[in-house]
Structure formats: C-alpha cells, structure tokens
Amino acid sequence: MNPAGNAFTNLSWVDxxxxxxxxxxxxxxxxxxxFIGTIxxxxxxxxxxAGNIFVRLGVTSILDVFRSVPLIxxxxxxxxxxxxxxxxxPAFWSGTIVLSVYCAAxxxxxxxxxxxxxxxxLRRAARSLGLGYWQDFRYIVWPVGMRAVxxxxxxxxxxxxxxxxxxxxxxxxxxxxxxxILTTKTQESFKIMLLIGLFYFLMSYPxxxxxxxxxxxxxx
Amino acid sequence: MDYQFLWPPVIKALPxxxxxxxxxxxxxxxxxxxxxxxxxxxxxxxxSKYFIPRTLSSIWVELARNTPVLFQIFFFYWGLGEFxxxxxxxxxxxxxxxxxxxxxxxxxxxxxFNAIxxxQLSAARSLGMSFFQTQRYIIIPQVxxxxxxxxxxxxxWVILMSSLGMLAGLRELTGETQxxxxxxxxxxxxxxxxxxxxxxxxxxxxLGARLLGWRLFRGQS
Lengths: 220, 221
Prior knowledge:
Oligomer: heterodimer
Largest sheet of chain A: none
Low-confidence stretches of chain B: none
CATH class of chain A: Mainly Alpha
Distance between the termini of chain B: 55 Å
Distance between the termini of chain A: 60 Å
Shape of chain A: globular
C-alpha cells in the first residue's frame, strides 16, 4: 500500500472519525452563533423599527460596518483585540462571538422587515381591543411577521453555517480546517474535498428546500 | 493594557495596501463579469425545455449556493491537485468567485425574467419586432431594473469574499495585509487599517451604484 520513501498515508477510517468530529464542531459553533445572533438580532430589529431617529441611525450605521467589512477581517481583528486587551480566549469563543454579532447584524434587517410587514391598522386594532404593547408583540406582530420573513431567516442561518468555515482562519479546527490537515497527511485532496463538500451540501440543501416549501405553502 | 499601538509601519505600508486594493478590485470585477455572464446562461438553462441543460444548470446553482465560498476556493486551489491540475491562486480565486456568483445571479435573473408577463413578448412580436429587438427594447430594460440592486449587493459580496484569497495565498488586500502582519506582528493595526479600506470601498461602490441607478432609471418607478 505504502511504497518505500512515501511519507504520506492513505485515507483510513481513523481519518473519517477525525472529519466527523470536526463536522460536529462546525455544527456546534454554527448553532450557538445562530441562536445568540438571532436573539440579539430580533432585539436590534425591534430597536430599528420602534426607536427614534437617532437610535435608528446609530444602530443602522453600526450594523452597516459589520456588513461592509469581510468576516475574516472581523475575526482576526477581534481575536487580536482580546489578546491585546488582556482577555485571551480560545478560538472557539472568539469565533462564536464574532459569528454571533455577524448573524445579529443580518437578522436585525430581517426582523425589522418582519415587524414592518405587520400593517399598522392591525396593530392599532389589537391595541384598541385592550392588548398591551408586549401582548401586541407576542400575539399579533410575532405570528404575522414571522410568516413574512421566516424564509429570509432560514437564508441567514444557512449563510452563518457556511461562513463558520472562516473560523478556521483564527485556528479553530472545524470541518474545513480538518480537511486541510488530512490533505497534508494523505495528499488525497480531491476525495477529502468531495467528502466535506457533500457534508456542507447535505446540511444546507434540505434546509433551504424546506424553507422554500414553507414559503410556498404560506403564500397560498 | 500594556500594549503600545504602533501605527508608523501601517502608514509606511499604505501605498502597497492601495496597490493590493486595486488587485482586489481587479479580481472582483473579473469574477463579477464572468459570474454575470455564466449566471445569465444558467438562468436560461434552468428554464430550458430540454433535460440536460436544465439539470446541469440546476446542479451548478445548488452546488454554488449550498457550499461555503471558502470551500469552493480551496476546492479549485487544492482539490484539483490530485489530478495534477494546479491552478495559480489568482486563477483559483477568480474561478471560485465566478462559480459562486453565477449560482446566485442565476436565481436573481430567474426572478427578473419571471417578473415579466409572457403576454408582453407576444405583444411585441405581433407588433412586428424581431426576437432580438423584443429582448433589447422590451425585456432587458425591465429585467435590468429588477435585478439592478441585487446585482450591486452581489458585487459588494464579491469584493468581501475576495478577501478569502488570503487563505489561498493570493496577495490581494487581505493577503497583503497578512504579509505585512507576518513581517511586523502589528496584527491589530494592520487589519484595522484594512477594515477601514474595505469599508470605504464598499461605500464608494454603493454610492456609485446609486448614482448610476438614478441615472439609468430616471423618470421611471
């Protein structure tokens, strides 16, 4: 199998387990970031729709920075900043924080669109029936707005899942980084690339199709 | 905080960074042109009545949209090595970004063409316009209006995505920053400066697109 003088080994089962563990890490960091980012994003979206002009301008221009600077630079900047400030943290946590903020910046726009999709007449009607401000949010804005923007939220979540690959740049061994390590070891780049491409595809494709299906169903 | 910020190395490197920013723009514009053209073909392919072009373009679109860009760059840069195909980092990055952009733009174009009722085509043809005249005077101007803003957004995405060229060894803006970083270890200072440059580029492109859009679609809405 391994001719003399060849320093590389063939792809083996151990390597697949290594890839599997890395895939779990990819899922972990994405799910945590999507969860935190969505919560922060909804709060920001509410600020964007309900705040006064100064709040709105402030939040918009801050979020704009996160959408105009490449994610990889945000990751490197944050990672080096926490070291400078004297709170060095593992790559997992700095990656999670940056991905969450990035996710929040995207979700904020989606959440604002959702809140604005609810007609003011409907909300006034709810308030005049005696619902409080938060009751109106919980029982009127949430279900109606949710239907309008759920597909966009799916899109954001999937883009965070895919962008989690960039965390490899600050040294977190997620799926893509693991594939590189294995490529260095085995020199079978094509097979490994095909394998992890398949993994990302199988994660992303069914969810995006499900999102489209739900969108069509709700539009009827 | 014991860290001393040291900016002179960044200021000294600024001219080099601007040159690298030009390379970033070159890569982005090239990828955008290729991606738009292929995306247009793919959007026709997906509406084709023949099985093979329809399937092939669907596979392209779904692959481009459902895998990370960084994976696509790595695939073209390293993945083909097993077959003895070694693309330079420039070619690999442009190929990957075009591949990605084509997938996203195909969907945008599809939406644009769907927005125009078929009756318009029939009406134009019955007025004696040829197929290409119909496309030129009736269909394209309307499609352009629908896809214009998604297209400018995609262009900004391409500029931001080209930063991943750093990980494939391309010395565009981010790659050049990383090069200076490895020589001076002023990570924060260099990447902060680069972040500002990207922000300015993104804003300038946005402003240019708005002005051009205002000029193109004046008097219509």
